[in-house]
């Protein structure tokens, strides 16, 4: 698997990317919010392809790792690549959880829990508005113009 440039966007690139977000995307990606359960556009998506970061386009999850967790959010048992997700201790709302953010741009994705299926037993519970979907065989998004947009597996 070819590597992806994980260098964060510079301030001008970031401003351009953020300008393209709607209110719900801004609330989740930038302000660490969450969407309501059972309403995300990717909850019932069964197509083959790759889920990428809505802000910077970094591939985050493959459709083959998606499963129905019954929680109301798209769930995955493994990331696209381990270094594409960064984990942050989250003590908000009176709980201790592990927040997941995009390793390249730092956008909030959701949380990971240790109650998923084999082989990882992880449940990456992700907000649909944090994701962009690319059908198998289509080029990955490359909003930063870095040339890492080969076809999605």
Count of distinct strands: 9
Listing every helix as H and every strand as E from the N terminus to the C terminus, the arrangement reads: HHEEEEEEEEE
Ends: how far apart?
10 Å
What is the percentage of strand-forming residues?
Answer: 25-35%
Radius of gyration over alpha carbons?
14 Å
Overall 3D geometry? globular
Number of helices: 2
Question: Approximately how much helix is present in the residues?
Answer: 10-25%
Low-confidence stretches: none
Structural class: alpha+beta
Q: Describe the sheet with the most strands.
A: 6 strands, antiparallel
Q: Main sheet: which strands, in order across?
A: 3-4-8-7-6-5
Overall pLDDT level:
94
Tell me what the structure shows.
Belongs to the MsrB Met sulfoxide reductase family. One of its GO terms (molecular function) is peptide-methionine (R)-S-oxide reductase activity. Pfam families: SelR (PF01641). This is peptide-methionine (R)-S-oxide reductase. The chain is of the alpha+beta class and 153 residues long. Helix content is 11%, strand content 26%. The protein contains two helices and nine strands, in the order ααβββββββββ. It has helices at 11-19, 23-30, and strands at 49-53, 59-62, 66-67, 75-76, 85-90, 97-102, 108-113, 123-126, 131-135. The strands form two sheets. Strands 3-4-8-7-6-5 form a six-stranded antiparallel β-sheet. It has a three-stranded antiparallel β-sheet with strand order 2-1-9, with no helix packed on it. Strand 3 (66-67) and strand 4 (75-76) form a beta hairpin. The termini are close together.
């Amino acid at each position: 698997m070819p590597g992806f440039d994980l260098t964060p966007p510079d301030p001008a690139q970031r401003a351009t990317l953020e300008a393209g977000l709607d209110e719900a995307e801004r609330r989740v990606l930038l302000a660490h919010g969450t969407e309501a359960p059972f309403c995300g556009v990717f909850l019932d998506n069964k197509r083959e392809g790759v889920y990428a970061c809505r802000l910077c386009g970094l591939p985050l999850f493959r459709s083959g790792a998606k499963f129905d967790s019954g929680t109301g959010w798209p769930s995955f048992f493994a990331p696209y690549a381990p270094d594409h997700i960064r984990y942050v201790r989250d003590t908000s709302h009176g709980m201790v959880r592990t927040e997941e953010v995009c390793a390249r741009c730092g956008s909030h994705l959701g949380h990971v829990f240790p109650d998923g299926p084999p082989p990882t037993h992880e449940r990456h519970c992700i907000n649909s508005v944090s994701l962009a979907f690319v059908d198998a065989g289509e080029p990955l998004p490359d909003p930063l113009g870095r040339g890492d947009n080969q076809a999605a597996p």
